[in-house]
Design brief:
There is one protein chain. With about 70 residues, the protein is mainly alpha-helical. The protein contains two helices and no strands. The two termini are about 25 Å apart. The mean pLDDT is about 90.
Length: about 70
């Protein structure tokens, strides 16, 4: 189990997972589209972007709570 060292909390762990999921979905669908995947896959791309945004928001909340 990996935990954040500076701000160890459930928020930072969740943010980390959201970053991972967001990068995989967002970048994965962009790469797939560039390599010729069906265009309908582009409808999934915003889910990855939203995951990244929520991850950043959770990380900011965890930082403010720790300060």
């Amino acid at each position: 189990r990996v935990r954040a060292q500076r701000w160890p909390s459930a928020l930072t762990s969740t943010a980390g997972w959201l970053f991972l999921v967001g990068v995989l979905i967002f970048c994965g669908t962009i790469y797939a589209l560039a390599l010729g995947a069906p265009r309908i896959l582009g409808a999934v791309t915003p889910i990855g972007g939203l995951s990244l945004i929520v991850g950043w928001a959770l990380l900011a909340v965890a930082a403010f709570r720790a300060a």
